[in-house]
Amino acid sequence: MRRRLAAGNWKMNGTRQNLPEIAALAAAHPVAAVDILICPPATLLAQAATLAEGSAVTIGAQDCHPAPSGAHTGDIAAPMLADAGARAVILGHSERRADHAETSALVAAKTRAAHDAGLLAILCLGETLAQREDAQTIAVVTEQLRASLPDSATATNTVLAYEPVWAIGTGLTPSAAQIAEVHGVLRACIAEHLGAPEADQMRLLYGGSVKPDNAAAIFAIADVDGALVGGASLRARDFAPIIAALGSA
Ligand code: PGA
Fold it and tell me: I want to staple 155 with a disulfide (CB 3.0 to 4.6 A). Which of 18, 137, 191, 202 is the partner?
């Protein structure tokens, strides 16, 4: 039985004045039927972790460097994130693959660094609209998985997030059949890479325009173990109904 996960990605949004959203979420969820994760900007990690302490909400980061320390001005190492109170880190998000030309090889190195620091890696994959229209979706996501997943990955330290690039921040979502197809293929691929027991246990999130009004339908799809939520995670009043929908899925 896979424990479901509602993960929020604040991206480059939020200053200290937004911390009450995390406090509200924590107050509303002293315990929860699902795992709850909020990934604020790095500047807010330590304060967010303090606010979430003692609740069902855990705090994660949005990126890390592959090295544990060193001369890398402006970068943040995975052990630093853990020290700030992060328990997880999002890696390989399409915005980082696009904005920072991150390759799957780099994502694999970062994922291994996250594992070494004891962080849960939330590894993102997804096709562009051009790739979907060209019937390349399965080829793209399976290649991203093969090249981004280090051999340190297990069902305990890694979660996959299928995020079609064209669904992120657009209000568009794939059909249930399209999500089910990709998640089914990903689970079969994990079985090939890590073996059937890990594949059975690894959580697969869907991400891209998950909102309170479409969450229940998405969580009813086979092989969807939760969501990675951008815009609708910024306010507790939007994220809480998504958490509730996952809890009753
Ligand atoms: P969105 O973002 O929910 O705003 O579409 C999802 C993501 O990029 O993780």
Answer: 202
| Ligand 1 atom, smallest distance to 167 CA | 5
Spell out which residues line ligand 1, taking CB within 6 angstroms: 9, 163, 168-169, 207-210, 228-232
Question: Which residues make Cβ contacts (< 8 Å) with residue 92, sequence separation at least 6?
Answer: 102, 104, 107, 110, 111, 123, 124, 125, 144, 148
Question: Cβ distance 61 to 89 under 8 Å?
Answer: yes
Mutate to test the pocket of ligand 1, among 38, 160, 218, 229 (most ligand atoms within 8 A of CB): 229
Q: Ligand 1: which atom is nearest the Cα of residue 169?
A: 5
**What are the catalytic residues?**
93, 163
> pTM of the predicted model, to two decimals?
0.98
* 5-248 has CATH 3.20.20.70 classification: yes
Closest CA to 205 of 124, 84, 94, 100: 124
Residues 6+ apart with CB under 8 A from 53: none
Nearest to 231 by CA among 179, 178, 167: 167
CA distances from 133 to 45, 127, 140 (A): 38, 10, 12
Split the chain (249 residues) into runs of 10 and give each run's mean pLDDT. Answer: 96 98 98 98 98 98 98 98 98 98 98 98 98 98 98 97 98 98 98 95 98 98 97 98 97
Domain boundaries, the chain: 5-248
Contacts of 74 (CB under 8 A, 6+ apart): none
- Ligand 1 centroid–CA 136 distance in Å is 22
Q: Whose CA is nearest to atom 7 of ligand 1?
A: 230
